[in-house]
């Protein structure tokens, strides 16, 4: 289907000329902790944090295990404050 759109063969770039690496990866970077809650299971309690990720809106924030987030991203917990969803300073920067 794409061939029908390309009328000029000189615009086609051979795949060998494109420097694509075999291993492509993309890592989301957490920006801020928005909220915290403790989920109660039958035998234990699991603390969770709501994480705002880079290049995402507040509505797309995800709940993650606090233990795992502290292990991978300790800088998010250094200030000790967890912001409320309504006071997110990153809303206007998307």
From TrEMBL:
Residue ranges constituting the Chromo domain according to the UniProt record: 31-78
Family annotation (InterPro entries): Chromo-like_dom_sf, Chromo_domain
Pfam short name (any one): Chromo
Top-level lineage group: Eukaryota
Protein name, per record: Chromo domain-containing protein
Species in which this protein is naturally found: Solanum verrucosum
Lineage per the UniProt record: Eukaryota, Viridiplantae, Streptophyta, Embryophyta, Tracheophyta
């Amino acid at each position: 289907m794409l061939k029908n759109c390309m009328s000029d063969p000189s615009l086609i770039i051979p795949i060998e000329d494109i420097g694509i690496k075999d291993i492509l990866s993309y890592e989301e970077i957490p920006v801020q902790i928005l909220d915290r809650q403790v989920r109660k299971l039958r035998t234990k309690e699991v603390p969770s944090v709501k994480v705002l990720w880079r290049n995402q809106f507040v509505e797309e924030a995800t709940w993650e295990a606090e233990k795992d987030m502290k292990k991978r991203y300790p800088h998010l917990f250094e200030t000790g404050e967890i912001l409320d969803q309504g006071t997110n300073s990153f809303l206007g920067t998307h």
